[in-house]
Amino acid sequence: MSSPSVVVLDYGSGNLRSAVRAVERAGADVTLTSDLDAAMEADGLLVPGVGAYAACMEGLRAIRGERVIARRLSGGRPVLGICVGMQILFERGIEHGVETDGCGEWPGVVERIQAPIVPHMGWNTVHVPEGSRLFAGIEDERFYFVHSYAVRDWTLVTNDRTPDAYQPRVIWAEHGGDRFVAAVENGPLSATQFHPEKSGDAGAQLLRNWVGTLGAA
């Protein structure tokens, strides 16, 4: 049986080689590219992101990456966002008083963490709800964060008619007394605020868990 194919989307967001290597170690056949046809056809799409929200959205729109994310999700095809690659999935971000529209896959605002020490940098535990596939076997582990901004209020509303696979599982973390969204699982769309590729064995297991779901539907 061949390995699942994953495209790491290259839209000018920093050094992506560590993400590529980490997903390769998780058992995928990985391509780093900005080619949208390849991004559509892959079993999984990983959207990385470092730096400023506005700059990431500018780079993403320059290659029409927001369209391929939306098209994949409308067809139930898996997408994983990491760090700012998670943040841009929300409706908008506010940095230094500048408001930028995001991809709008989830409602919510990315804003500065309200903590005495920012950025939040280092290892932290997360609070995982029952039934998580992404965090299976690593619910009590710590993950590596580097960020000053996050989603501090989850606002997506679902009801009992929403299939269980599409009921969002929201993973929370705390820093300096402020709670924020650390990760989300929502049908084909998953995302982490932390860096799994920098999170040692726990991050490696999370990526294996994700790669293990590709093509399983």
TrEMBL record:
Q: In which pathway does it act?
A: Amino-acid biosynthesis; L-histidine biosynthesis; L-histidine from 5-phospho-alpha-D-ribose 1-diphosphate: step 5/9
The record's listing under Pfam families reads: GATase
Among PROSITE patterns, the record links this protein to: GATASE_TYPE_1
Q: Does the keyword Cytoplasm apply?
A: yes
GO CC annotations? Answer: cytoplasm
| Keywords of the record | Amino-acid biosynthesis, Cytoplasm, Glutamine amidotransferase, Histidine biosynthesis, Hydrolase, Lyase
Subunit notes for this chain?
Heterodimer of HisH and HisF.
Per the entry, what this protein does is: IGPS catalyzes the conversion of PRFAR and glutamine to IGP, AICAR and glutamate. The HisH subunit catalyzes the hydrolysis of glutamine to glutamate and ammonia as part of the synthesis of IGP and AICAR. The resulting ammonia molecule is channeled to the active site of HisF.
| Protein name, UniProt field | Imidazole glycerol phosphate synthase subunit HisH
Q: From what organism does this protein derive?
A: Nocardioides silvaticus
The gene coding this protein: hisH
